[in-house]
Amino acid sequence: MNSTTLIGSLIFAAVLALVIALVxxxxxxxxxxxGERQAALIGALPEVPETVGSAIVAPTSxxxxxxxxxxxxxDRVAVGDLGYRSKAVLTRYPEGILVQRSKASPxxxxxxSITAIRTERGMVGKVTTRDGILAIRWRxxxxxxxxxxxxxxxxxxxxxxxxxxx
Length: 166
Prior knowledge:
single chain, alpha+beta, about 170 residues, about 35% strand, transmembrane helix, 9 strands, membrane, elongated
């Protein structure tokens, strides 16, 4: 390789690296702006109660897929850590549903806020087989409705979560 080809290759690599860095920074900026726009709409999440009754539905392990603004399954909530996927355990109590996420804060969904529990094929960029995601629609204290998505490790157990079983 002669020196002209080497210099051209290095310049091309530097420009390519700058373009990639610019695209990534614009994506991060867009995510932050989305969170700022949604902050007033989402408001404060309900606090996890100190005590709850015994579990109605045993803990179900899986993946917390994310939250979306209802009814748009692709409009991910970017406020706080609600938009990040993580391993999670879903447990239902008489007072509500607890989503315990690893490396993220838990989400408490009060029973009186739940408007629907159903299965979906896809949510926030996660598309699975038929009935692959358990979606919980609930109303926040701010009045906004969101869907919380959960993909269980054993999807044959979803029937325990659906309204007919509870």
